[in-house]
Amino acid sequence: MSHQTPPGRAGTPSAPQSRRDPHGWPHAVLAVLASLVAMAVVAGLGLWAAGAGDLPDGAFPAVVAAVVVMAVGGSVGLSGGAGGIADTDAGLSVVPLSVSLVGALVIAAGFLRPLRHRAVADTKELLGWAARIALLWVLLLVGLGPVAGHRFTIELGEGTAADIGDLLGASPKVGFETDVLPTVVFGLLWLAGVFAMALLVSRGAPLPARLVRFQESVRPAAYAMLVLLLAYVALGLVIGVIVAATQGHTAETLAVLLLGLPNLLWLAFTLGLGASWEGRVDGPFGLPMPRVLDQVLRTPSDSTLNLRTLSDHDDRVWLLLVVAAVMVLGAAFVMAARSPARMRPWQHAVHMAVALALTVFTVCLLAGVSAHAGLSLLGIGDLGGGLTGLVKLRPHLGTAVLLAVAWGLVAGFIGGLLARPVHRRGEVRAEEP
């Protein structure tokens, strides 16, 4: 007698699969909205601490939206003027990495959650799940475009600018707006980078069958780099909270923590490795704390920022070298401890060198700053009045990457030796007779 499947049970084998792989649109919507809310909250609190809550004409929501756009690599342009009488020239290129980091962690968690408890995933499945989130992400960026824009009427202050402005009735205005197409393009690149890093650092995330053979060499190194960068942020957060609680300037300190903490800490990381940056600060604007950065860069021409030039103002900056050595060696140990025991120290050295070089390269691209503002009336430029300023900071990229390779080779080899006695996850040791 043949066995028949009872009515209503035919779909039973697929039920566990659907519960295991919830790749539906509701989960994608939740991941995207959670990331947006997290970034908006962090950006809003940081801007409020910085005093942006007092901006006129209800501009605060627009500024928050603009910061979120910049955090995901979007393009926000500045412009202004007062007809043919006055002209303003302004530009801003900076990534608020505190906001960007929070958004990346949240959306990465949402991306990985349906994929957990898997060993291998089909390429089509991964691409389909990523495409759902990417489509919603594009719609979100397009929707933020009209919101992230505003125009302000600026006061001319005192002096020549105010006198000419009053005489001619000029009311200069400066504003910002989002360029939607570059924002969508760079926002998708940012999202793709987040997805790639999420798959690389997570042991529980599945990979396509063709890529499984690379996970033993790539995933431990990627995870170690994430730990390294987050450890710097955690250390800076602790120091920042202590400074805010004991040294005064609480609002300004909180603004830096909520908007640009990784910008400062990852800059300090590269300086600790021996890298050099070049820049200048001019006018009323400046870099956030610590003050020694402003002191080194506030010169008539471009200045070099490294441990030597910083030590001319404060000898304590040499601690950055010590911190970098401890952090990099710790990351190398974490990488080796998560790698198979059969790997040799020289292999750990190569993996660490490549990973650290890519990390430093990325940090240098993200942590640069370029901002300028100027005012001219009737073609007379640089009228001052507290409205003209310049801040720029860019790395010596080639030297920074080469130093990272050297540090990685040494630290990776030592980390491989230190991790030899460590029992690896899933490793079975032979019992002694």
Concise structural overview:
The protein is an alpha+beta fold and about 425 residues long. The chain has 14 helices and 8 strands.
Radius of gyration equals 26 Å
Number of strands: 8
Strand percentage: 5-15%
Helical content class: 55-70%
> What's the number of helices?
14
Determine the structural class based on helices, strands and strand pairing.
Answer: alpha+beta
Name the poorly predicted regions. Answer: 1-21, 160-169, 376-386, 428-433
How would you describe this structure to a colleague?
- With 433 residues, the protein is α+β, with helices and mostly antiparallel strands.
- The protein is built from 14 helices and eight strands.
- It has helices at 14-20, 25-49, 60-71, 97-112, 123-147, 160-168, 180-201, 215-246, 250-272, 291-297, 307-311, 319-337, 345-367, 397-418, and strands spanning 75-82, 86-93, 150-153, 173-179, 277-282, 303-305, 369-377, 389-395.
- Strands 3-4-1-2-7-8-5-6 form an eight-stranded antiparallel sheet.
- Helix 3 packs across helix 4, helix 4 (97-112) crosses helix 7 (180-201) and helix 8 (215-246) crosses helix 13 (345-367).
